[in-house]
Amino acid sequence: MTPTFNLRTTVGLLLLLALVLLPVYVELTGSRFLLTLFTRIVILALAAVSLNLILGYGGMMSFGHAAYLGIGGYAVGMLAFEGITSGFVQWPVALLVSAFFAFVIGALSLRTRGVYFIMITLAFAQMAYYIVAGLARYGGDDGLTIEKRSQFIAPINLSNKVQFYYICLVLLCGAIYLVWRLVNSRFGMALQGARSNDTRMRAIGFPTYHYKLIGFVIAGTLCGLAGALLANHTDFVSPAMMYWTRSGDLIIMVVLGGMGSTFGPLFGAVALLVLEEVLSGITEHWQIILGPLLLLVVLFARGGIDGLLGKAHHG
Amino acid sequence: MAELLQVESLAKRFGGIVATDNLTLSVPEGELHALIGPNGAGKTTLIAQLSGLLVPDSGRVYFGGGDITGVSMPSRSLLGLARSFQITSLFLDLSVLDNVALAVQAHAGHSFHFWSNARREPELRDPARAALARVGLSARGDLPASALSHGEHRQLELAMALASRPRMLLLDEPMAGLGPEESARMVSMLRDLKKELTILLVEHDMEAVFALADRITVLVYGRAIASGKPEDIRNNAQVRDAYLGEQEAVHG
């Protein structure tokens, strides 16, 4: 089963190839800084891929998706603080706790629609933010430094930056593939039907709530994984990981790259974070340039970067 | 003939407006039962209660002998009660074939299949193609549903209702907004369908109603003021006063 070959898929795969070759370039030029930047981009792209499952394919405008970044991150951070550094414990715990929170948050918020859904997911994320900020034992507002990255068996060593980058990249590719399979399955068709016309879905016999909830939990769990990676990447977790502006960043990545497309979130994450990096090098008021740019995309390029590639392909 | 659908003393109020007023109605298996009445007579409200979209204030609905008053909309659909919408209600951003395939999928067990490609499952695609062929949309399957004309949307609505292999169709104004030619095609399609399905038809097009219906119920302000064979309804003085008098089509 190969995906239909077109420009968007080609560009997506080329971008992945470029990411695979990045450490070679870094080795040749010695710009270690690029490796750090792109590790971060790959991790946040993974978070965006997870958000795309519910936002792009499920039509669920979750404004609290960064909560799972924080939950996954804090699972790693807190366990490390308590002396449990094994990744075989930390990572499953990070996934399970994220899944649990996604289930509870989803079960409550999916009973609402539209603006109320946006507000309630936002409220849950902010609640998580303030709870974590209040945990004095784990650094509260100041965050928590992680002395030791997640330990796996040799030869896996997350402290090796190149190796850690590749682990993140493999997980990102796995997530893109997973979401691609999911959205084309019966489950995915049910999810897309619910996005398109929820009432009609129920009229023809789909209990859409259950399908949306499962999608919500899968997305939250994947984002929890991104959180565990991010904690290892920065050796530090803080409440800021789940602040609402971070949720906004993830939404921007998905919208900029193209909602409901296979590679869209990857395009969006790379574009946004590289732009941020380049523009902030030019002027400290870089947001003045980025803002209008985003506005143009939303106004004139519905379907984001992926949509533009699709249009270019069809002439 | 056994009664397939039975409505007993159904009532629904919206504030001071009585949309369904102590309505009793029964449709035997195999009948095409038409529901007519002036605008605001509560036809769509009744369909909504029959399909489970609205909960009645009081009264019962029986389908196939079982009480379905408290049964949810998805479950009613699974029991074999399918509805089409007055205002076209489709998955506009999905392909025409996807629209119908979803209706098939709804009745092919649960959809917690996460891995294999649903667009390649003959079990879903073949019945969907068959339903599209039935309404004459075979050639349009790969287009997004948004690209179809209004008349084709009505045909697609019907294909989706058929694809769920229902025992009974609730059709809410299938001819709404159709041109004369499209209407004629819809009538001949429905005539074909009534051979194998029980149908409750809400329709304003009197020509179509009298051409198709085995029995007709006339609703006015949520109440059934008459119910009977088409010729009885045509000759019913009360109906003429309330409604048909204004309709040229009946006399023509």
What is the average per-residue confidence, as pLDDT of chain B, rounded to a whole number?
Answer: 89
N-C termini distance of chain A: 26 Å
Rg calculated over all Cα atoms of chain A: 19 Å
CATH architecture of chain A: Orthogonal Bundle
- Oligomeric state of the chains present here: heterodimer
Write structural notes for this entry.
The complex is a heterodimer of chains A (315) and B (252). Chain A is an all-alpha fold. Chain A has a single domain, classed as ABC transporter involved in vitamin B12 uptake, BtuC. Chain A contains 13 helices and 2 strands. A two-stranded antiparallel ribbon of chain A has the order 1-2. In chain A, helix 1 (7-29) runs antiparallel to helix 2 (32-57). The model of chain A has no long low-confidence stretch (mean pLDDT 94). With 252 residues, chain B is an alpha/beta fold. Chain B has 2 domains: 1-80 and 166-252, P-loop containing nucleotide triphosphate hydrolases (Rossmann fold, 3-Layer(aba) Sandwich), CATH 3.40.50.300; 90-165, no CATH class. Helices cover 36% and strands 25% of the residues of chain B. Chain B has 10 helices and 10 strands. In chain B, the strands form 2 sheets. In chain B, strands 6-7-8-3-9-10 form a 6-stranded mixed beta sheet, sandwiched between helices. In chain B, strand 4 (58-63) and strand 5 form a beta hairpin. In chain B, helix 4 packs across helix 5. The A-B interface holds A 1, 181-182, 184-190, 192-193, 196-197, 199-207, 211, 214 and B 51, 53, 72-75, 77-78, 82-83, 85, 89-94, 98, 101-103, 105-107, 111-121, 124, 160, 164.
Summarize the structure.
Chain A has 315 residues and is mainly alpha-helical. Helix content of chain A is 74%, strand content 1%. Chain A has 13 helices and 2 strands, in the order H-H-H-H-H-E-H-H-H-H-E-H-H-H-H.
